[in-house]
Amino acid sequence: MLNDAKIKAAKPKAKRYTLHDAEGLFLAVEPWGRKYWLLRYTLNGKTRRMSLGKYPAVGLAAARDLAGKERAKLASPAPSDPITDRRLDALRRREITSGTFEDVAQRWMARQVWAEGNRTRNERLIGKANRAIGARPLADLTAREIVTAVLPCAEKGSIETAWRMFRLIRAVVRYGRALLDIHYDAADAALVLLRELMPEHVTRHRAAITEPAKLADLLRGIWAYQGTPAVRAALRLAPMLFVRPGELRHAKWSQIDFERAEWVYPVSKQRRKHIEAGRVRMAHVPLAIQALEVLRELQEHTGNGEYMFPSARGRDRPMSDNAVLTALRALGIPKEVMSGHGFRATAKTNLKQTLGFPDELIEYQLSHLTADKYGEAYDRATFEPQRRVMMQRWADWLTELREGNPQTNVLPFRAPA
After folding, report:
1. β-bridge mates for residue 266, sequence order
2. Are residues 359 and 289 in the same domain?
3. Is residue 415 part of a domain?
4. SS3 state at 76
């Protein structure tokens, strides 16, 4: 074993050499005179060496104490690699300047990939959380403090917003726990309290007009709308294509194939997780004759830009997510009667109930996840011919409805000639 006299007497040599102490602890001596401590250990069948500091800054007693602590960790039932742990600690120190909730939340949000509308909403909710608990060190944050931050939203009747805010707080807490090595999960404890204290949430579906007679009035109003070309076109395409509002307003001219009569756009990473177990990367929307007519008319106004529906503030970004909603309100349609997302419910209801198309075909066009999660791994059907028939028949029915002569007879699975 080593002692202070032996360590001081160790002189540099032409090559680095080590002096053994005990239980894997060594002193390394470099040719230029530097001395430092090494601990040799074996984990998962592999032998590694880690540095414990330079001598004389770390003396013999301190080196033995450090080595003992690392050996104790390695002897635990679920040991981790000390070198990996040290690297993670260094990353944490570089990444987190302070351990407050606000500091961790900022770094967590910087890593998220959100759509524009979701980012604005989530930043607003995180801002509310920061005003309540932002200055609190994450290691000291309690479940009651989280509950106190969330409950005001629920007390105002915004139950869904309150739960959304809590989910964001919980994500930040879990991210911070990993970075700061915090063992207590305040968010899990808060969840138990919130389930007891939060008023019961009543699910409200997005407003949608599904009755053919009322839908006919809406369509006539849409075709009479005298707004900007982009908003007018978006309003006319919304019931025909029944895609999500965000997908419609982000549409680009490069995604439209007039010859094949289809719109193909990439599925976002977040939605890809929920569509066919991540298989689908591109969404295909067959374009009926009526949709192509609207697009060709719109092309004269916005075809020289990137976005089909550019913002009024600049052609380098898409229109606001409130543009179609504002147009509906201008037509005298209140929010409790029809929403932008409601066109999907309108299509689903009438394609199935009025026109008789099979649910599987409609769900595929809506890009919904099927119920059989195991079958998805093997079912690669796209139903393209049938969906083309369906989308053309849907556009025809909307036209007939608007002109006052709706027909409901349909042969869903007849492929186009």
Report:
1. 282
2. yes
3. no
4. coil
